[in-house]
Amino acid sequence: MKDQIPSVIITGASGGIGKKITERFARGGYRLFLQGNRHMEDLHTLASTFKNTYHVPIHILQADVSDYASVDKMFQQILAEDPAPDVLVNNAGIAFFSLLQDMSEADWDLVMNTNVKSVFACCKAVLPSMIARQRGSIINISSMWGNVGSSMEVAYSASKGAINAFTRALGKEVAPSGIRINAIACGVIDTPMNHCLSPEDRQALAEEIPAGRFGRPEEVADLTWFLAGPESSYMNAQVLTLDGAYL
Ligand SMILES: NC(=O)c1ccc[n+]([C@@H]2O[C@H](COP(=O)([O-])OP(=O)(O)OC[C@H]3O[C@@H](n4cnc5c(N)ncnc54)[C@H](OP(=O)(O)O)[C@@H]3O)[C@@H](O)[C@H]2O)c1
Prior knowledge:
Helix content: 40-55%
Order of helices and strands: EHEHEHEHEHHEHHE
CATH topology: Rossmann fold
Strand order of the largest sheet: 3-2-1-4-5-6-7
Structural class: alpha/beta
Shape: globular
Distance between the termini: 47 Å
Oligomer: single chain
Strand content: 15-25%
CATH class: Alpha Beta
Radius of gyration: 17 Å
CATH superfamily: NAD(P)-binding Rossmann-like Domain
Number of domains: 1
Bound molecules: NADP nicotinamide-adenine-dinucleotide phosphate
Largest sheet: 7 strands, parallel
């Protein structure tokens, strides 16, 4: 029997956006299942801070989301603790800057497996329990480049475009089962993913954005929270752009 606390699974919880999504759901009183891969220490520190502040149950899991078997194993652990998760946030992902001509097959597979196969694997693992309860909400953290494409980021753009189409298609497939799936097409968000930019490049990029600044990870977290909850109950199979009017 599930206790009364709603639960959320967040992938990439140790990253810039993942941390803020985690905090938003901790503040909302959710039981948290947090996935990390390489930065497990960061995740443990984050978990103990939020446990002390918000007094919610937190479970930490290590998995490589690009690997189907690793995701499968993670979900066996999650479902053993909570057979009825309420929300899944597919946030883990990597950027890849390169000319297409300089990319290897292994580079392509890494981007596609991390950004797209992971979403397939996590959704497939969580859906049976959501379908059984006829409820659940899935949010995919995508990119504006999935809408329009970016030079030097062909693989990344293709991976996020795939997530957008996946979201629109799966939303139609699972809506009759009471499940919603939506995506956020983020613009430039101020996280470690963009720390490779020089101060001059950051400044130039911010000036190109009509809002005059990068997005904050908290703003992605607030929209994720909205998409998870009852205020968005009729919204399904949508890709919402959050880019400060950049595109
Ligand atoms: N920042 C932006 O401007 C921006 C714009 C559009 C979309 N997004 C999307 O937002 C999401 C979060 O990005 P972010 O900016 O927060 O980046 P980030 O700070 O680099 O965080 C990425 C997260 O993904 C996890 N991750 C990467 N590869 C993984 C793998 N193979 N297995 C498991 N976890 C893996 C990382 O975990 P470990 O470090 O523990 O491996 C980390 O927690 C991504 O999907 C990204 O594409 C970001």
